[in-house]
From TrEMBL:
Protein name: Anthranilate phosphoribosyltransferase
Superkingdom per UniProt: Eukaryota
Presence of the UniProt keyword Transferase in the record: yes
Gene Ontology MF: a single term: anthranilate phosphoribosyltransferase activity
Enzyme Commission number(s) of this protein: 2.4.2.18
Pathway involvement of the protein, from the record: Amino-acid biosynthesis; L-tryptophan biosynthesis; L-tryptophan from chorismate: step 2/5
Length: 433
């Protein structure tokens, strides 16, 4: 415990929050969070603070949320220098960014796709799958996530079912993006200062400000983000918080059904942040993406193991038979492979647009399809999976992938489909014949 942050100094702040909430400032809240991060408040005080903050309604203030997120970012484990030099020829087993970095507006930084959770729809792990598809196009994705809190399968649950390792030493994370544009940061490993807060939150058994902070505290601090919220009134708050945190470009979305993703069923409310300006709008699967719409019941998720089967089928370029749990839907509202595939394309396309890789949502759909059909998405995932195992000291057999002029290959070979798209002389399907 720091001598500057003690239960006695916390008392003063707590009294102000309870007795004069109108005078409780973002700076006061940030100071409270600094106490929490160094265990400078007792468990009773921490519980009282979270309760009072909830009852005051201040947790919906963008300035308050941004102040708290900034403190948690300060106390997160540092993960700097993640991006390898893109101009250097890759060594064997490393990803070649030199062609893909020429696509779009040239952004070479990190992106993230994340939702607040708590929407109650329990849909398929679309953000994790979309992140891998986007990475297959050469966009550097640093996804920050954890195990399920309100759904059947969280991002970490899915990746564990896909034979990935998430307990690798934090010191190893710097080398991951050299092997794959997809990186997953398991939240508990990067926020040790919050470990003692978890049992307090469980005992309170109601939503607190921590429920909205998760998507904002990615330790890699991506400058371009797709962020989903489960309630429309959170859209304004999150867009403003991202602006206050200095995020360069972001799209905050809320499906009109109360979905914290882009809805495959109909309209989605949007808040586009760029150059410090926020623009509100709406998007629709058919009108803006050129994709058919699907009821939310058709993109319902399942257990992590069954979702892993769906994931592998989506990333297999020439899937002819979907997994058995999706191959014979009981009715038109049952989960279907086609609907989930479109759901992934929808959200991947939006992230590709936010990342600057795609000039529009429809172009994003085309690039997402290419990522899957070329094998790029699958290789991006395999690169992360194998790197996670190596970081745990496990032996991985090296398979040399020859450049056949068709599939997107790692191991330093060139992605021919990216060249073809640039000169528009061939399509990915023609390349793969």
């Amino acid at each position: 415990m720091s001598k500057d942050y003690t239960p006695d100094s916390f008392k003063v702040l707590l009294k102000k929050l309870v007795q004069s909430p109108d005078e409780f400032t973002p700076e006061d809240c940030a100071l409270c969070f600094r106490h929490l991060c160094v265990q400078g408040a007792s468990e009773a005080q921490a519980g009282a603070f979270l309760t009072a903050l909830t009852l005051s309604g201040l947790e919906s203030s963008a300035e308050i949320v941004a102040a708290c997120a900034a403190v948690l970012r300060e106390h997160a484990v540092s993960v700097q220098d993640l991006i390898p030099n893109p101009s250097v020829a890759p060594e064997h087993g490393m990803w070649d960014y030199r062609d893909s970095d020429k696509e779009g507006d040239g952004y070479q930084g990190l992106v993230d796709i994340v939702g607040t959770g708590g929407d109650g729809w329990d849909t398929y792990n679309v953000s994790t799958t979309a992140a891998v598809v986007v990475a297959g196009a050469g966009v550097r994705v640093a996804k920050h996530g954890s195990k399920a809190a309100t759904s059947t399968s969280g991002s970490a649950d899915l990746l564990l079912s896909l034979d990935c390792r998430l307990a690798f030493p934090v010191s190893e994370v710097k080398g991951f993006l050299a092997h794959s544009p997809f990186l997953f940061l398991f939240a508990p490993h990067y926020h040790p200062s919050l470990a003692h807060i978890a049992p307090i939150r469980r005992n309170l058994n109601f939503r607190t400000i921590f429920n909205v902070l998760g998507p904002l505290i990615n330790p890699s601090r991506p400058q371009r983000m797709l962020l989903g919220v489960a309630k429309r009134d959170l859209g304004d708050t999150f867009a403003e918080v991202l602006r206050l945190l200095g995020v360069e470009r972001a799209l905050v979305v809320c499906g009109k059904e109360g979905l914290d993703e882009i809805s495959p069923e109909g309209e989605t409310w949007t808040w586009w942040l760029e150059n410090g300006e926020i623009t509100k709008g709406e998007i629709h699967p058919t009108r803006d993406f050129g994709l058919p719409s699907h009821p939310l019941s058709t993109v319902r998720g399942s257990t992590p193991d069954l979702n892993a089967l769906t994931f592998n089928s989506i990333l297999s370029p020439h899937t002819t038979q979907p997994p058995s749990h999706l191959s014979s839907p009981v009715g038109p509202d049952s989960p279907s492979f086609a609907a989930i595939n479109d759901y992934v394309l929808l959200n991947a396309a939006a992230l590709l647009h936010v990342s600057g890789k795609a000039a529009s949502y429809k172009e994003g759909v085309a690039i997402a399809r290419e990522s899957i059909e070329s094998g790029g998405a699958k290789l991006a995932f395999e690169g992360f999976r194998d790197a996670s195992k190596k970081a745990m000291g496990e032996h991985i057999d090296q398979i040399i992938v020859e450049d056949d002029g068709g599939v997107a290959a790692k191991n330093g070979t060139v992605k021919a489909w990216l060249k073809a798209r640039r000169d528009r002389s061939q399509t990915p399907k023609e390349l793969n014949k």
